[in-house]
Write a structure and sequence with these properties.
With 485 residues, the protein is of the alpha/beta class. It is built from 13 helices and 17 strands. The protein has helices spanning 2-21, 41-50, 63-69, 85-90, 92-102, 136-149, 183-195, 206-212, 240-254, 279-294, 380-389, 405-420, 463-484, and strands at residues 27-31, 55-58, 75-80, 113-119, 157-159, 162-163, 167-168, 177-178, 200-203, 230-232, 235-237, 262-267, 298-299, 302-303, 310-312, 367-370, 434-437. The site of one 2-acetamido-2-deoxy-beta-D-glucopyranose has 7 residues, from helix 12. Residues 60-61, 81, 97-98, 101-102 line the site of one 2-acetamido-2-deoxy-beta-D-glucopyranose (NAG). Keywords: Cell membrane, Disulfide bond, Glycoprotein, Glycosidase, GPI-anchor, Hydrolase, Lipoprotein, Membrane, Plant defense, Signal, Transmembrane, Transmembrane helix. Residues 1-25 form the signal peptide.
Length: 485
Amino acid sequence: MEALHLAKILLWGLFLHRCIVSVDSAVGVNWGTLSSHKLPPAVVVDLMRENKIGKVKLFDADPDVLRALKGSGIAVMVGIPNELLAVLASSIAASDLWVSQNVSRFMVKGGVDIRYVAVGNEPFLSSYQGRYQSLVLPAMLNIQQSLARANLGGYIKLVVPCNADAYQSASVPSQGVFRPELTQIMTQLVSFLNSNGSPFVVNIYPFLSLYQSADFPQDYAFFEGSSHPVVDGQNVYYNAFDGNFDTLVAALSKIGYGQMPIAIGEVGWPTEGAPCANVTAARAFNQGLISHILSNKGTPLRPGIPPVDIYLFSLLDEEQKSLLPGNFERHWGIYSFDGQAKYPLNLGLGNGWLKNAKNVPYLPSRWCVADPSQDITVVTNHMKLACSVADCTTLYFGGSCNAIGDKGNISYAFNSYYQLQKQDSRSCDFDGIGMITFLDPSVGDCRFLVGINDNNSSCTGCGIFCGLWMMALWVIIYLRVMSSL
Ligand SMILES: *[C@@H]1O[C@H](CO)[C@@H](O)[C@H](O)[C@H]1NC(C)=O
Ligand SMILES: *[C@@H]1O[C@H](CO)[C@@H](O)[C@H](O)[C@H]1NC(C)=O
Ligand SMILES: *[C@@H]1O[C@H](CO)[C@@H](O)[C@H](O)[C@H]1NC(C)=O
């Protein structure tokens, strides 16, 4: 027992040491995994290290991802999905189990440097109509206790990433208040965060303001100055980010926590899928944002105090994300799904432009296209079907493949489906209209993708050991069932 305790103290010493010597890099990234062409986690971790990215925010606690982060020195925020809040709020046993399976297990020497646990993801979003509202605090309290019991209470902080719709303002930033129905819960939440030294985490999206409102001044979304500044008494706002940030500061002040540290959980700009989403705009926004943060200017209500942390949304494109928000939802990455930088970006981490992923395990260089000798007037249904599971968002207005013609559209859809099916030759049939080609059909900016061989981390790839392990498991289950009869 004593030795274990000593080891833990030594371990914290190690962590502390690391945190003092390494430059606390300001810019981190969100790493979401809603993709059917997942890069192996180890490749993503190498990509982050190559780019000196020292902070990553996850949306869950995927063991494959956490294993890859072992020994990387990257500071990690793991997430508790909203769907788990109910059980974690109602059962301390569930929260103990969650912490032991998803946190403690990785907090060993040479393990994962988990610094934050995000309890829910935008749980107060107005479109959830209060579904998770009453669960957040009870879940937090349980997780807090479980962390304390695991001797991690002092090291790991709990946060709740909130959408910016948690607060509002009738006019200018200084009028910011939390949504009336959230006032009480926010007061309790912020008091809890404050007593634990946790920041308030908020997701801010000037892109969505521009996308959703026709009369939102275009230049106000960026950082180059605005011909429509917002004048708020003595303060003048030249960009939506600062305006939004200070609306939160004002809302926090009104409940008595004007000094609460703020971290940006998500911020970014998509590269396609909407008229105002393109590579030029994404680059201008992200680079402007990074320079703005690194200048340490802060905002009018917090001069000289930039956010404590900032996580770009997102590291990689995720082509299985919901299309409900719009086609752009699958194109938030500073990298495409396969870790290739979409535009030059300097993260301000002393490393120059983004560097691409190495050792990407692509499937063979082959594509599925519509056979040019076939009549393609009959394929609408095939195309619909292909696009209902594979990603075809680039074909639409504002997409990089919008101008490739009817035949191009069909080929693109066929190929997306074929790659989704890991190049299974049967998936390129389409009643004899599809054909496999070894010539890259990409045209201009429109890239016909080649999938990624990502099954080596799952069971199908682990061969005989996995088989033996499964057999052993069945034997154990069998024996258990027998003995309980
Ligand atoms: C650990 O986290 C994963 C991913 O979020 C989740 O699926 C799993 O249920 C968690 N484990 C427990 C015991 O809650
Ligand atoms: C890219 O988006 C910006 C900002 O919304 C817009 O002003 C510009 O016209 C777009 N560029 C192209 C080439 O569509
Ligand atoms: C390709 O499909 C997109 C999306 O349906 C459409 O906007 C575009 O017009 C199509 N192109 C042609 C030439 O049909």
